[in-house]
Amino acid sequence: MEVDEAIRGRRSIRAYTSRIVPMEMIRDIIEAGTWAPSAKNGQQWRFTVLTGQAKKNLTDIFRSKLETLSSIRGVQWMGSSLNSCAIMEQAPVLIMVWNAGDKGWESEGHSVAAAIQNMLLKAYSIGLGSLWIADIYYAQAALTKHLNKSWKLMAAVTIGWPASVGKVPTKKTIDEVSEFLS
What we know:
By secondary structure, the protein is an alpha+beta fold. It is built from 7 helices and 4 strands, in the order ααβααβαβαβα.
């Protein structure tokens, strides 16, 4: 698959089949993440792969925290977080993505974001669907404690065989998003 095809064809997938994803495919996706550029070659990314009961335990904690927050602040304040939790529960594979950088540089987070993008493109190129989820911030402390990590939790990525194609997003033109100076 050509890189332009992967960039333009990849979609955020929010529905998955129950078909098991071979662990070798997950390893290939993570390896693609490790080839991202990183601040000072720090390779700050770390990954926790959850399936089966381990995934259920984490999503149960996430749902519980979201429901508590929802009762305190209201459902509208929660945005898409409850839907994100449902997607995490349905997906066969959940990858928690961490920033293990210890310098405190903002660019360490950028490095992790680059790794996630590589992972999403790799998943698409091998026929899998994926979704980058930032709603984990609603329960970041609880999820970090549950997984017993000292790193900064950056995102969750769902992986699985897509049950839908995903809609083609409307994109702004180059002229709408760019400024050319000389």
